[in-house]
Sequence to fold (256 residues):
Amino acid sequence: MLSPQVLSKGDQYTVLRPDRLTTTEGRQVTHIPLAAVQEVRADGDTALQIVLTDGATRRLPGGNAYATSAFLTALTAALPEQRDPAGSALVTTEETGAVIKVWQVWIGALTLLAAFGGYVWWTGSAHGAGMGFAAFFAAPGTLLGGLSCVGVLFSIRTRATLRRRGITVAAARHYHPNGRRASYYKYTDTSGNEHTTGYGSGRSTQEIHIVYDPETPSTSVAVEPLYVTVVKHAFYASASLALLALGLWGVLAPYI
Fold:
């Protein structure tokens, strides 16, 4: 079964479902049944025009000409033989929760970049070029060290939770339809839902033992000896704390 094609540009994207088109733009989601579509036309190289059975039109922008052409071909082939003349009357729209738009992400990223640049410039101007150079590397190091420490804490908490209530199963190596071996394993929980795990991706065995959380079955870890878990987390924790300490020293040194 082929994955549904998506035509997207900026904050708007349209997904081709078996029986409808679903267009999402900001908080608004529009569903267009394929039976309400009369035809699809190219609107330039990177956009499509949907003509409904009652004559109304809608424009779907795409990111590049190749993706737009592929979406046009797939959508044309998916249109049913029997159409519904109601057209626009079959189109439904709903509101979703708050979403973060692309321009908001760019503004946030540029603001952080400007703040970082200002901090480095101020440190270099007030305490010398050497301290400014140190600050340039220290601030990202502090952030990376802090995030690494948080990651280690989450991993330890997950291991502790699974040790208390985890269910152990044999996860089987997954193979693609063409017979090529995948880099992940799949397992099924007690409810019959299938999940994947990236643990053991470098192994050549056909199955590995994993432990998953029955309350959140997608959370899983590979079964390994206790000493391996302890040594691994001790190493990651030490490296993360060292990076955090080094970063904090570089950030605070000019002001101490």
